[in-house]
């Protein structure tokens, strides 16, 4: 009789283990869906080149820990992609729609894009700066933070400056913090 009770207890214990594992998996899945990751593609028109627009977009990506890219187009527009939690993408878009101090007639159009599960960076392609006298194009790459925190505007700018200073070469070294349009 004792062996029957041991077998029943063993079966019940293994059943409880399965239930606990299933419950833990369900909880983990629900916390992931709480932060829905989206991707958008955007085009900005107006006076948006040579006014710090791509750097501003990258600072938003740094602030909200978003993946993606930004590049100038030959038609004088700026094309960008943002990917991350929907609320953070929306916050970045609000600032992008405001433009930079020197931009004007800013119009932003966005459309859904495909989420790239392996995206871990935000890159500004071919960045130059008239206000810093940097004419050689550089790709400025921000690696997403593991802690996925949101930074202040000041902290995001400091991270951007470190990226710039770590990327530029030759005569451009030391120019990243010398933006005559910054206040």
Task: Describe what you observe in this structure.
The chain has helices spanning 2-34, 53-64, 86-98, 153-167; strands at 37-47, 67-72, 78-85, 104-112, 121-129, 134-143. With 183 residues, it is of the alpha+beta class. The protein folds into two domains: 1-34; 37-172, Alpha-Beta Plaits. β5 and β6 form a beta hairpin. α2 (53-64) packs antiparallel against α3 and α2 packs across α4. It starts with a helix and ends in a 16-residue tail after the last helix.
Structural class: alpha+beta
Q: What is the beta-strand fraction?
A: 25-35%
CATH level-1 class of the largest domain = Alpha Beta
Q: Order of strands across the widest beta sheet?
A: 4-1-3-2-5-6
Number of β-strand runs: 6
Spell the H/E element sequence. HEHEEHEEEH
In short:
This protein has 183 residues and is α+β, with helices and mostly antiparallel strands.
Which short descriptors sum up this protein?
2 domains, 183 residues, 40% helix, alpha+beta, globular
Itemize the secondary structure elements and their pairings:
Blueprint lengths: L1 H33 L2 E11 L5 H12 L2 E6 L5 E8 H13 L5 E9 L8 E9 L4 E10 L9 H15 L16
Parallel strand pairs: 2-5
Antiparallel strand pairs: 1-3, 1-4, 2-3, 5-6
């Amino acid at each position: 009789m004792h062996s029957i009770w041991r077998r029943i207890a063993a079966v019940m214990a293994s059943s409880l283990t399965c239930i606990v594992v299933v419950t833990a998996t369900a909880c983990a899945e629900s916390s992931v869906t709480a932060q829905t990751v989206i991707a958008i593609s955007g085009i900005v028109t107006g006076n948006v080149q040579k006014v710090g627009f791509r750097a501003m977009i990258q600072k938003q990506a740094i602030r909200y820990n978003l993946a993606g890219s930004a590049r100038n187009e030959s038609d004088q527009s700026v094309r960008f992609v943002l990917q991350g939690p929907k609320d953070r993408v929306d916050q970045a878009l609000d600032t992008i729609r405001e433009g930079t101090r020197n931009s004007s007639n800013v119009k932003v159009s966005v459309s859904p894009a495909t989420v790239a599960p392996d995206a871990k960076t935000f890159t500004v392609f071919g960045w130059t700066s008239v206000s810093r006298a940097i004419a050689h194009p550089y790709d400025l790459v921000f690696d997403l933070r593991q802690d996925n925190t949101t930074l202040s505007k000041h902290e995001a700018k400091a991270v951007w400056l470190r990226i710039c200073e770590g990327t530029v070469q030759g005569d451009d070294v030391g120019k990243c913090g010398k933006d005559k349009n910054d206040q």
